[in-house]
Specification:
Elements (H helix, E strand, L loop, with lengths): L1 H4 L2 H25 L2 H9 L5 H24 L3 H24 L17 H21 L8 H10 L2
Helix pairs in contact: 2-4, 2-6, 3-4, 4-5, 5-6
C-alpha cells in the first residue's frame, strides 16, 4: 500500500490537481478583477483596508507563480509549502466568514465558480491535505520535476 502511495504517478496527479487549482483561481481572479473578492474580504473586517487591497491585487500573480511551480515541479517543496501557507490563510478567511454568518461566495474562483464559504472550506481542507502530501512525497520522488532536470544540468550529469 505504501508503495502505491509513494508512486511518482500519484505525486504527478496531485501536483496537476493542486497546481491546476491555483492557476485556475489566478486566471479567474485576473479576468474578474479585484472588486468582487476585495468587497468580500473588506466586509470581514480582518485587517486594514490598505493591507487587504495590496494583498488582493497581488494574489492572482502569487497563485499563478505557485501553481506553475507546483505543476512543473520547480522548487516543489518550497512552492507546495508556500501554497500550504496561502491555503491556511484562505481557510482562516473562510472560517471568519462562516463565524460572521456570511454565506456568500468569496469569489475565490472569480467569475467561473461561486461556491459558498462552506464549500470553499472543504476545498481548502482538501488543498491543505494535497499540499502536505506533496511536501511529504518530495523525498521519495525526484523524477519528473523541473528542478531535478535543472540540477542535473548544473552538475553536468
Amino acid at each position: 500500500m505504501l508503495k502505491i502511495i509513494k508512486h511518482p504517478i500519484v505525486e504527478i496527479i496531485l501536483r496537476v490537481l493542486l497546481g491546476g487549482i491555483f492557476i485556475f483561481a489566478a486566471i479567474a481572479k485576473i479576468l474578474d478583477g479585484p472588486s468582487s473578492i476585495l468587497t468580500y474580504v473588506l466586509s470581514l473586517n480582518i485587517a486594514p483596508a490598505v493591507f487587504i487591497n495590496a494583498v488582493i491585487l497581488s494574489l492572482p500573480y502569487i497563485e499563478l507563480a505557485l501553481g506553475y511551480g507546483i505543476l512543473l515541479g520547480l522548487f516543489t517543496r518550497v512552492t507546495a509549502g508556500l501554497a500550504l501557507v496561502l491555503t491556511l490563510v484562505f481557510l482562516y478567511v473562510n472560517i471568519i466568514g462562516i463565524l460572521q454568518g456570511i454565506e456568500v461566495s468569496c469569489h475565490c474562483f472569480g467569475i467561473f465558480l461561486g461556491f459558498s464559504n462552506s464549500i470553499d472550506l472543504i476545498i481548502n481542507i482538501l488543498m491543505i491535505g494535497v499540499a502536505l502530501y506533496i511536501i511529504w512525497l518530495y523525498k521519495y520522488n525526484k523524477k519528473l520535476k523541473l528542478e531535478t532536470w535543472i540540477n542535473s544540468l548544473v552538475k553536468g550529469h
